[in-house]
Amino acid sequence: MKHYTLSSLLALTLLVGCSSSDEIVPDVPPSELYSEAQLSLRSGNWLTAIGQLEALDSRYPFGAYSEQVQLDLIYAYYKNDDLALGLATIERFTRLNPTHDKLDWVIYMRGLTHMAQDRNFMHDIFNVDRSDRDPEPVKSAFADFKRLLQRYPDSLYANDAKIRMHALKNRLADYDLATADFYLRREAWIAAINRSQELQKTYPNTEAARKSLKIQLEAYKQLGLEDSVARTEELIKLNK
């Protein structure tokens, strides 16, 4: 079994990140190029598909395949982790096609793309829990799925969006818990209490909300607030 050092993994990451779809794409009729791009997509050859689709998009921006090419690019960019390009293409498509019949899918893909931005390659490899990392992409994804459910409640993607929103809610609650714990460790008692109570109010039915009660309890003890300690201990008993 091969063993990889951190430096070799980083080098591999950089090599993959520098890969480009800028290889020469033959100047063939659009129908032929589109068929080749579909074959690349079906085989999971994302870089080749992206090169072919980008060529179609630049050579025939108003052609018969223009809308479908953009939709295919959104998917290929997502699968290839070209997330910034995916979001830019989603924005462009939405602006140019505000009433498109696949707009529910586009909103769904925007949610998936924002979710993917919350991933971290090195964290995935080493199974590191980083609940304290910036949750802004998670908030964006939650808003995307919420928008999908509001605008297209009968969409094929509505049920999956609900499931993902539940997971995202837990992710945001974990971030608030990590923040409350940070304040506790820094002996910022009032800040720890405030963040714990905000978490309990915003995400009441989460494991993080229950865990935050212990942080709140410790902070109250440090402040010598006996009545608040007693109330929090009672809450902990009720939420076991």
Describe what this molecule looks like in 3D.
74% of the residues lie in helices and 0% in strands. The two termini are 45 Å apart. It has a domain at 26-96. Helix 3 packs antiparallel against helix 4 (66-79) and helix 9 (158-185) packs parallel to helix 11 (207-223). The protein has helices at 6-18, 30-42, 46-59, 66-79, 83-96, 103-117, 121-126, 136-151, 158-185, 189-202, 207-223, 226-238.
Portion in beta strands: under 5%
Number of helices: 12
Instruction: Return the string of H and E elements.
Output: HHHHHHHHHHHH
Structural class: mainly alpha
Q: Gyration radius, to the nearest Å? A: 24 Å
Biggest β-sheet: count, sense, barrel? none
Ends apart, CA distance between termini: 45 Å
How many beta-strand elements?
0
**What is the approximate shape?**
elongated
Mean pLDDT: 88
Spans of at least 5 consecutive residues whose pLDDT stays below 50 are 1-22
**Helix-residue proportion:** over 70%
Membrane topology: Lipid-anchor
Subcellular location: Cell outer membrane
InterPro entries: BamD (IPR017689), BamD-like (IPR039565), TPR-like_helical_dom_sf (IPR011990)
Keywords: Cell outer membrane, Lipoprotein, Membrane, Palmitate, Signal
